[in-house]
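Worked example

This section walks through a single chain of length 280. The input is the sequence exactly as stored; nothing has been trimmed or padded.
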Amino acid sequence: MADPRVADRLRRAGGVVLDMDGTLVLGDRENRGLAPLPGAGELFAALAERGLPFRVFTNGTVKTPAQCADALQRAGLPVPAEAVLTPASSAVDVFRRRGHRRVVVLGGKGLTEPLEAAGIETLPPLRGTRADAVMAGWYRQELTFDALEAAVGTVVGGARYYSASQSPYFATSEGRTLGSSRVISAVVRDLTGARVEVVGKPSLQALRTAARSLGVAPADLVVVGDDPELEVPMAHRGGALAVAVHTGIGHAGSFTDLPVEVRPHLDLPDVGALAELLRG
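Given that input, the structure is written out below as tokens.
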């Protein structure tokens, strides 16, 4: 590690926020059949040795946080249910703060169950529905023209619009897969002119939710991920230490052309290299 300031920040870190797909594991387009990526087991061992708390924050909304944790455990990674966050987790923080009680959801149980557990009523996208907000997540096979029309109508009726993610793609074992929430959001924004507010990564809200869960200030976190448009920008927004890996969307050349002020503090081949630095 060339920069002693980076080494010092890594040594003094209060917690780690880890991406899931493309960083720790890869699965298929439905987020099934997860297999650990190189170094994932070593990383969790190093975190345990250091006594360094972590959260896995995935932009995926197919599964609930508990289901994600179960899938990671079945892949051999020691991730408890309370250590996983999704855009539903940060959406709960936003919706409670803004008083959103009724939300039209374009997504499945991975979104609706965490919202309902927080006391927020979720509604399907049906024509004529009135709500405080509309939120889009993973909504692929279920997506219909009627659902899009209903979402547009609810936003025209005054609802605020939220998206789990605006990433064009996410990493799978089958290659890059199109992100459905971005596609839905493009239609809603084009027809209504509404602002699309992202509650997942790379929003500062996502980082703040992770920081609050860990009881650590955002600036004391290490954020690790594979997507040049997600984890690294989010880390910089919150003053956290940004670590890039090359096992998913990003590759060895993905981060070198970024402006100096938004490049990762550490640019590593995989999370195993981070484990070595933590142990060093």
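What to look for: The longest helix spans residues 180-192.
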